[in-house]
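The data are passed on as follows:
___
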Amino acid sequence: MPTSHLSPSDRTTIRRHNDRARLDRAELLDLLGSVLICHVGMVRDGHPLVIPTIFAVDPDGPDLDGTLYLHGSVAARSLLDAPDQELCVTWTQVDALVLARSGFHHSMNYRSAVLIGVGRLVDDPEERRRALDLVVDHVVPGRSATLRGHHRKELAATAVVALSLHEASVKQRTGFSNDDKADIDAGVWSGVLPLRLAADEIVTSADAADVPVPPDVVRRAQAFG
């Protein structure tokens, strides 16, 4: 059963602006549910490497405090090297531009998370299928149930790596700029420009022109607004 309280390790403890640290595990899960990609950092051949990738989360997964799933081609060395080594995974959601009265005080309102853990190669067939379905559903909720099952060849070509959600931290900034009083008294404008991810009109493939757009895709587009 996942704990409800984040307890960052020394490696994930927020030191700068530690007042922005969030300690409720629900806020970690909420952030991971709203961000489409993560960035996975590792050391390969003696140098650092950071890769953007799609992911999935199972709060009730088999690892401590839940499971993060990463997937990719079995031919990708970055994923093959991931098991049994320490990985650092990050997420960032920019919620607004904070426009100050000076360049120094410009900022962003954001939510971010850092996760550190040792990769576990998922070799159980059932867990791998479930993980890959979760990846699809992370992008478009409910879509995996509308698709055909994974072919054996596809499963053989795809590697899945799992990490525990235990060692994580969340940081959030909200509000307006922290301008100097002299700049405020000068009467210069400042404010916040909110940002959000939006969807354009759905475009159907030419070879599916006579097929209605599935409800799961319509709902996803509506959710983006």
